[in-house]
Amino acid sequence: QVQLVESGGGLVQPGGSLRLSCAASGSIFSIDVMGWYRQAPGKQRELVATVTSGDSTNYADSVKGRFTISRDNAKNTVYLQMNSLKPEDTAVYYCKMQGVRITLGRNNYWGRGTQVTVSS
User: Fold this and answer.
1) Rounded-to-integer distance, Cα 38 and Cα 79, Å
2) Residue 89 has what pLDDT?
3) DSSP-derived secondary structure for 55-116
């Protein structure tokens, strides 16, 4: 059984920073792609950033230059450093692990989400 645990969300003023973490636990051999998505009230879930096992990264245009995604393969953990936060970054942020190789095969998993609120 694989579980994802997210942490690091909270309330921050515009221009501030937060660092999100998502750790996957279980009998995991490898993870192909780790990523972050977000969903604001009344909107669809959207991609924020992804990082592959080869450390290739992809960002939504709205966060380029402000957010940085990274991963620690030894800890099965992905991070999202968010700087220069704006009110429009307010959303529930979800971690997604794709191509998680376990004993019985390969699956994708979602975290439960962590709230990020940017407000003065």
Assistant:
1) 14
2) 98
3) --EEE-GGGTTTEEEEEEGGGTEEEEEE-S--GGG-EEEEEEEEEEEETTEEEEEE---EEE
User: What local confidence, expressed as pLDDT, does residue 73 receive?
Assistant: 95
Where residue 1 falls among pLDDT bands split at 50, 70, 90?
confident
What pLDDT is attached to residue 104? 83
Residue 73 dihedral angles phi and psi, to the nearest 5°: -65, -30
CA-wise closest residue to 80 among 54, 98, 58: 58
pLDDT, one tens digit per residue, over 25-57 is 999 999 999 999 999 999 999 999 999 999 999
Which is nearest to 31 in space by CA: 23, 21, 39? 23
Please provide the distance, in angstroms rounded to a whole number, between the alpha carbons at the two ends of the chain. Answer: 40
| Tokens 């609120």, residue located | 117
User: Which single residue is written with the structure tokens 């645990």?
Assistant: 5
